[in-house]
Each structure stands twice: as structure tokens, then as C-alpha cells.
């Protein structure tokens, strides 16, 4: 008696043979963007190890080193590759630590948006009727205000209510909540549209006939089939969240001076750009623009890959 065993491919084997990897390895822009993004992420994660100095350690900062130009310029100091800021902090170190804060806020804010958007979008699309009308009208009202307007108003209210010291102490948490709450309608509307298309399919009807409850059908059956648009939106929203944090910090409503993010570094340097110390704001600004650009390029590539009407080899 002959017995044949069928080989079940592992997740890694399925990934290596997937269309996703096939298109990725044939798109030079996507590969380059991902490589640059990976460098930023690794640099942010390893900032305590690779940064020349710790900008949070006041004992290592000398005010006499303030506004030194980059090391390759005249009067530059070889200890500071990209120069120093107004407090004598190494600009390269502040960029590395600032990138970590900016990326942390970006990812966590998108997590808040994702949680709110999934729950509200699934509920609106699945139940329909008055629930759908109420939730979508609420989303429309919030969309009528710009993200920055909502963030500025909420930040100003928190600062006025709890004081600047309290806001500075919990600035990261506050920014994550503010940016997350301001952007959830983008997810909710997209997920609702996907749910409206999915809930009419046979597998949903079969789940209802089997007696599964609504939450299980929504999260176990419908949601996995809505992941493609969610992934595309998340990529773009990370870039938007990083820009929102930078804009708020630039306006003085974001992170305090002793917690350097890319936005606060640009804000600090902007006050000195006309005095000749252009490097304080130029290098953090270049890093911010490059980071947002590569994330948006990855988002555009993902949108094309998950769109069945577009072939991109």
C-alpha cells in the first residue's frame, strides 16, 4: 500500500512565492524606498548606541559648543559631524533621538486611528440603517475640520486646562491621542465601503445561518478581507501623523524643547536660520522630508499592488 504525503508549504515559502514579493523585487523605487525607511527605523531604534552623544544628558552638553557649524566647514568641530544647536547639543544625535520620537508618535497615532476606524467602520457597514447614518454623519462633521485645526484646538485646551508642565510631562501620550482621534474617519469610511461589499457575499450569509454572532462575523470573517485597503491607508497615515506632530511641535503645541522631535528641532533652528546657523533646521528638515517621501512612495506602490486593475511589474 502506497502512502503519499503532501507537503504543506510554510508561511515563509508562501511569502517567497507570493505576488507581493514578486512585484516588490521588480520595483526599484519600492525597494529603494523600503531600504531608506529601514535605515531610518534602525537608526531611530539604535539611537542610544550609535548616537555620538545623548541629548537628554545635560552633563554632556556644553553651552560653549552652541551653534558650531558642521565638521567639514570652517570653524567646525570634528566631534560634531552636522554641527550643534543653540544649546550645544550634537545635531546628528538630536536627529537620531528625534526620529525615534517622531516615528513612535506616528506608529502609535495610526494604531489609535486604526482601532477607532475599524470598530466604527465595521459597525456602520455591517449594521447599516440609523447606526450607519449616525456614525457617518459624525465622521463627516469631523472631516469638515482639518486635522491641524482639531489638533491645535485640543492641544490648546489641554495646555490651558492642565498647565504647560503637565502637558510637557505627558506630551507624547497627548500627541498620540490628539492625532489619532483627529484622523480616524479616513479608516472608518474606507472600511465601511469594504464591509458593504463583503457582507453581501455567500460566506457571510453562511456564517449567519450557522448562528455566529455579529461580532464574530465582523472581526473573524469580514475584517480579514478588508486588510488590503487598511494596509495602504496605514502607510499614508503614518506619514501624515509624523507631519502633524512636526507641525504641532513647530507651532509650540507639540513636544517640549527637552524632548527633541524632528518638528521641535526644525522649530528651534528656524529662530537661528537668518543668523547663519542654517544647519540647525536644515538637516532635521531634510530628514523629515525624506522620511515622509519614502513612506508615501511605499504607500503608492502598495496601492498599485493591491489594485487588481493595475499591473506593475
Description:
It is a multi-pass membrane protein. The protein is mainly α. The model has no long low-confidence stretch (mean pLDDT 79). Helix content is 68%, strand content 0%. It starts with 10 loop residues before the first helix and ends in an 8-residue tail after the last helix.
Number of helices: 14
Mean pLDDT: 79
What best-fitting shape do the alpha-carbon axes yield? globular
Q: Any idea what the radius of gyration is? A: 24 Å
Structural class: mainly alpha
What name is given to the CATH topology of the domain at 89-305?
A: MetI-like fold
**CATH domain class of the domain at 89-305:** Mainly Alpha
Assembly status: single chain
Write the CATH homologous superfamily of the domain at 89-305: MetI-like
Poorly predicted runs are none
Cα separation of the termini: 47 Å
Helicity level, as a percent range? 55-70%
Assigned CATH architecture of the domain at 89-305: Orthogonal Bundle
Transmembrane segments: 29-50, 105-129, 141-160, 166-184, 222-243, 278-299
Pfam families: BPD_transp_1, OppC_N
GO cellular component, one term: plasma membrane
Domain ABC transmembrane type-1: 99-299
Amino acid at each position: 500500500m502506497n502512502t503519499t504525503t503532501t507537503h504543506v508549504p510554510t508561511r515563509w515559502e508562501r511569502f517567497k512565492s507570493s505576488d507581493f514579493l514578486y512585484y516588490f523585487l521588480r520595483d526599484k523605487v519600492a525597494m529603494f524606498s523600503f531600504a531608506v525607511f529601514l535605515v531610518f527605523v534602525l537608526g531611530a531604534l539604535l539611537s542610544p548606541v550609535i548616537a555620538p552623544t545623548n541629548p537628554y544628558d545635560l552633563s554632556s552638553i556644553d553651552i560653549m559648543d552652541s551653534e558650531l557649524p558642521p565638521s567639514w566647514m570652517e570653524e567646525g568641530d570634528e566631534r560634531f559631524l552636522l554641527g550643534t544647536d543653540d544649546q550645544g547639543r550634537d545635531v546628528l544625535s538630536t536627529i537620531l533621538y528625534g526620529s525615534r520620537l517622531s516615528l513612535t508618535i506616528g506608529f502609535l497615532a495610526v494604531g489609535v486611528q486604526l482601532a477607532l476606524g475599524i470598530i466604527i467602520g465595521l459597525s456602520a457597514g455591517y449594521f447599516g440603517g440609523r447606526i450607519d447614518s449616525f456614525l457617518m454623519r459624525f465622521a463627516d462633521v469631523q472631516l469638515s475640520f482639518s486635522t491641524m485645526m482639531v489638533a491645535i484646538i485640543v492641544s490648546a485646551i489641554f495646555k490651558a486646562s492642565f498647565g504647560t508642565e503637565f502637558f510637557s510631562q505627558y506630551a507624547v501620550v497627548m500627541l498620540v491621542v490628539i492625532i489619532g482621534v483627529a484622523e480616524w474617519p479616513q479608516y472608518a469610511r474606507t472600511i465601511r465601503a469594504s464591509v458593504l461589499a463583503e457582507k453581501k457575499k455567500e460566506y457571510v450569509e453562511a456564517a449567519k445561518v450557522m448562528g455566529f454572532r455579529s461580532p464574530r462575523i465582523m472581526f473573524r470573517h469580514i475584517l480579514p478581507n478588508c486588510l488590503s485597503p487598511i494596509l495602504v491607508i496605514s502607510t499614508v497615515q503614518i506619514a501624515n501623523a509624523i507631519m502633524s506632530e512636526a507641525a504641532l511641535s513647530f507651532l509650540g503645541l507639540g513636544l517640549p524643547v527637552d524632548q527633541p522631535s524632528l518638528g521641535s528641532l526644525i522649530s528651534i533652528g528656524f529662530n537661528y536660520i537668518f543668523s547663519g546657523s542654517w544647519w540647525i533646521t536644515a538637516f532635521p528638515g531634510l530628514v523629515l522630508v525624506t522620511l515622509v517621501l519614502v513612506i508615501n512612495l511605499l504607500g503608492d506602490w502598495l496601492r498599485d499592488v493591491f489594485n487588481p486593475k493595475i499591473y506593475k511589474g
